[in-house]
Amino acid sequence: MLPNPGCDPEINVIVLGAKVLKQLMTKSVTLDWLLQEFSREVKVSVDHMILCVDWLYAIDVIYLDGERICIYEAS
Fold first, then answer.
1. pLDDT tens figures, 8-49
2. Domains by residue range for the chain, with CATH
3. Contact, 38 vs 44, CB < 8 A?
4. What is the pTM of this model?
5. How far apart are CA 36 and CA 59, in angstroms?
């Protein structure tokens, strides 16, 4: 998951993950909403966004509630 030299840092999974988590701190959202919102900010492919969401899910930071992506609350 570490960025390769020469890769655009804006589309790195870690950078995208941080942006997704920042958004999820305010409200839960759908994957469609994330794709639309992030395409306005940075040119990112659907594959990169899905990889980012998969990564956040795999490290147990987010969960799905129906179609909504939610962040786990810190205890």
1. 666 678 888 998 999 899 999 999 998 888 878 778 888 888
2. 9-71 (1.10.10)
3. yes
4. 0.81
5. 24
